[in-house]
Amino acid sequence: MQAAFAAGDPEGPPAEQLLFLAGLLHDAGKARPRWQEYFQRSLAGSQEKMPHAYVGAALFALYGRDLLDTHSPSLRVEQLYYLLVRDVEDHHGKLRDWYDPLLNQSVPPWKSLISSQPPEDTAFAALDVLVQRYLPALTDSAIINQNIFKERLARLENRWDRAFKKHRMKLKQELGVVPSAYASWISRDVTGRLIAADRLSASGISAETILSSDSAQAALRVFQDKLEKKHRKAIEDGHGVMANKRSAVHEQALAGYRNNTDAPWFALSLPVGWGKTLISLRVALEHAAAGQTERIVYVAPYLSILSQAAKEIRKVTDLEVMEHHHLALLNAEPTKSGSPEEIEPIDVLTMESWRAPIIATTFNQLFRAVFPKNAQQSIRIPSLRRTFIVIDEPQIMDASVYNAFIRGLEALRERSEARVMLVSATIPPTLHALTTPPLSIAPEVESADRYTLVTHTGTWTEERLAEEAMQRFEQHGQVAVILNTIVDAVRVYRRVSELTEKGVFINLHGMMTPLHKAHLIAEISGRLDRKEPVLVVSTQVLEAGINLSFRRILRARPIFSSVAQTAGRANRHAEGDIATVEVFDFVREDGSDSSKWIYRNEHQRKVTGELLPPDGRWSEAQTAELIERYFEKLSYVDPNIKALDWFAEAAKGQWSKLAGLSPFETLDEDGGNELSEQNARVFVVTADAWTSPLVKNWMEYFQIPHVGNIYHRYQDKGFLRKLDFDDRKRFLSLVGQFVAPLRWRLVAQVCGPVDPEKTSILKAEDDNDYHLDTGFGHLLLGGDLDDYDRRLDAAMSRSHDPGQYL
After folding, report:
1. CATH topology of domain 451-637
2. What percent of the chain has pLDDT over 70?
3. Topology match between the domains 213-445 and 451-637
4. Cα separation of 298 and 279, whole Å?
């Protein structure tokens, strides 16, 4: 009953009654002696399977249709009915279609199993008593035995396809041919309500903390005090001019927000280095302090941006931040339907439910709320209610899905009373996805003239680049080299290291543990602050979200938006003479151009080439003008509106058109399977010197004497179940500090024979396989990369980045 009341209201309008009914009947298939006997056998170790959701789906379809017939339902409530029938059937697995275009029909989802596994022993009479107790309108619709159930179900099946086709026709008549009009008709917020009601009630997780008005007001006071201290320190460090400009822009942006606090979408577009993260946080906190928001969700493309922002939020507000990304999860996949353990692991529920005041998460995880591929992924949707969502660097997601994402998020936002802010120096246009553009709160800012952008002629090989990098290092001291893939970054780093033993050279990429990357970032930052020489060879992890400032940056040619982000790491605080950002065409020793593996959009590469031809030179102000032209030209030559067509098809029964849509390239045509997550997760015992004070404090809190003991505790599921909700979040974040991604083809080499089905996070047999300079990156150099590995390498370069989680 708890799940039913959590899902809907039996005394509410028809939509609420349908949700209540779905919550009441979704597990009806367990009300059978045969299923209870099966469950007891499973506890004793049996591996047999016995699905149950089909019984609930059939009963819900019968009672739900009777309920609608008593109400003369609207078209939207009819749509909800078909969606919930499918959701009840799918509540332990993949969210499937309810219309097959190849067959041109809708097949009742329970039909095959009802025939092969008829549920004669179901407690129909007891279930009917419950239904009629809470929904008295169904008094004349009694289903008290198998015969009545079978007879009525046959009649429903006979008219099912005809009725659904009639509904599809009504949808088309109502909504016309504009694809985006269908978005709100396929929003999966109702799916999220049903699944959250099922999972959380079954797990015993009931605690939900929100960001109260009082807490937000207290955080704002802390924020203001620390911001003033930060401003004074910047002046003391000789960055007074830039600090004063930032402070003025900060206040102007706040004024822009206060002039229209009720806007559904906001845009904060400022050049890199002007404090956008702090401004967006201040706006979100003010929204919460006014009682308009109950939760803040900060979303970033890279773990580097995510982690640095999370650390900054903690630092300036004294509030706890729960981080949710794939490395923080122990098992992101739902339990298979019919398996003995049908309650998702408590660690997964803890992370995926987003039941915390402040969440920091990735594009991947937010996409899973907007376009869930399986039932489990929808569990976070209820937590978007009255949430302020900050989306940092939206231009980094693939252009092909950008408009679909914005449109899908708008449908969820509208139904959840949420607010959204887009934050970047380069925000792509939203005219194809939103009827009203986001409210811009950023003032016009005068160019700080911090850098010059130049482009080179010809191509540079690994050897040429290493030599050029050493020349810049000897001349300028503080240099960054940014390449497009992990393999390229490791190879060039090794070539640089072989040229001389003098100097500090640092390699930075995604196949490292968070603690390792955090340690390296801190070392780089310290050397830059002390004006000491350092040469960093990195993937795109330095491109955005990292508060570092170099004198010289060499960038393998990407697309233009990435060039603009890279430039933000040059003379970031205007603390010295004008810096230089050099863009060059990079090829491997075999002549291949690895950039095409990550920047796959031909239009983006072409427009970048037109605006940034070889042998060019531009000031910061000119670069800002060019980036505007870049998005204007892209919007004209490639508006990327094809994905919007999928909303109409999804609303009419083909959810697979949207299910699993990913912010980055996918390997499979079904979607939802990012290249960046086609990797094992491996726990590594790393150097004690990398362990941050907060990690040490948490180890003491959990009475864990050594790093190796963390993994032992992770394997002890009884330990996790003894922890309360907040402590589970803390422990899972602690585990994530020591986890690095690894290609599956390398798992046997590093971890020995393992069963990935039993252990989601593996353990390295020999921690020496993880190198102190390149992490697991050196393992990629052990042979030629095939096509699949090249694509994995490219995606990993974008998606696994450094950060300080704690």
Report:
1. Rossmann fold (3.40.50)
2. 90
3. yes
4. 13
